[in-house]
Design goal:
single chain; alpha/beta; two-stranded antiparallel ribbon; globular
Length: 309
């Protein structure tokens, strides 16, 4: 069902469970994601698969679904011969599919329109480095059309996610001005700093005092980074934290495979919630089985799990 409460209102009453990695669930469903558009290709070629992936997370207890628009951009679609009007419709479809997946649930489910970083469009891993050599103004100009298209589809929030550096965070916060939709800001981090090597406290500070930002935190990072980042985000901004790390495995680009062991422990969610996290889920390689374990953990640490009520 479409939520009665705003996301900000829900965060004031407890913890909401986010979904997990969309791409790994799509792969589990047999989808081929070996494409520069990644899961966004399925907006055109297999929308039913995206809806099914969202539905799997709803069944697992997720009450916030992040759309399949992370790597969906006008520029990326143009390279595939998709014109701007058609691309805008595909961006809107990403919101519609998440809404449809939540339609049969007798609880509130919020939809977060994913706004990935500039590097996601390049499909070369640069979202994990940042510092693209573009100015705040140039990055704002890149992001604004997609944000406007997503906002027009009326998601409950925009997820400004996997942001690698402060320059892009500043550009994104400028780009969402006037869009009419609240946002969360989530950095990808390593070693307690942004992926670009910047001080994390300074990075979080760009969102302090911005009433449009309902939560600040980290995603697409090692689970070991999550706890300290949550504490810092809350201390710097006074806002609820959002946290959804990866499984702990690392992508080997040369071998095109995942390496290392799984370090995501749902039991840690209680500590994240106690530190002020109110949006808790998973990113790459975190599937429905793990998300299903987050509800009880978050309830133990920070109030209501599952539906935030």
């Amino acid at each position: 069902m479409k939520p009665v409460r705003t996301l900000a209102e829900a965060l004031g009453t407890g913890v909401l469970v986010l979904d997990g990695g969309l791409s790994n669930q799509l792969e589990a469903q047999g989808c081929d994601l070996s494409d520069a558009l990644w899961s966004a290709r399925l907006l055109a070629d297999g929308p039913e698969q995206i809806e099914a992936a969202h539905a799997a997370y709803v069944r697992a207890g997720a009450r916030v679904l992040i759309t399949s628009s992370y790597q969906a951009t006008f520029e990326g679609f143009a390279r595939r011969g998709v014109d701007r009007d058609a691309a805008a419709r595909l961006l809107a479809r990403s919101v519609e599919l998440a809404r449809a997946a939540a339609a049969g649930v007798g609880e509130e489910v919020w939809v977060a329109g994913s706004v990935g970083p500039y590097g996601a469009m390049l499909a070369d891993g640069s979202e994990y480095r940042g510092r693209y050599g573009l100015s705040v103004r140039e990055l704002e100009a890149f992001h604004r059309p997609r944000i406007e298209a997503l906002a027009a589809a009326e998601p409950d929030v925009l997820a400004l996610e996997t942001v690698p550096d402060v320059t892009e965070a500043e550009a994104l916060l400028r780009a969402v001005e006037g869009c009419g939709v609240p946002v969360w800001l989530s950095y990808t981090v390593e070693g307690g700093r942004t992926r670009a090597g910047q001080d994390l406290a300074e990075a979080f500070a760009v969102a302090a005092g911005n009433d449009r930002v309902v939560a600040v935190g980290v995603n697409c990072c090692d689970p070991e980074e999550a706890g300290p980042a949550v504490e810092l985000a809350v201390a710097v901004t006074g806002k609820p934290a959002v946290v959804y790390p990866n499984s702990g495995e690392r992508w080997d680009a040369g071998a095109r495979g995942w390496r290392g062991g799984v370090a995501f422990d749902p039991a840690r969610a209680a500590d994240w919630a106690a530190a002020g996290a109110r949006l808790i889920g998973g990113c790459c390689r975190v599937g429905p089985a793990t998300i299903s374990a987050l509800g009880p953990s978050t309830a133990a640490g920070g109030g209501a799990g599952g539906d935030g009520g």
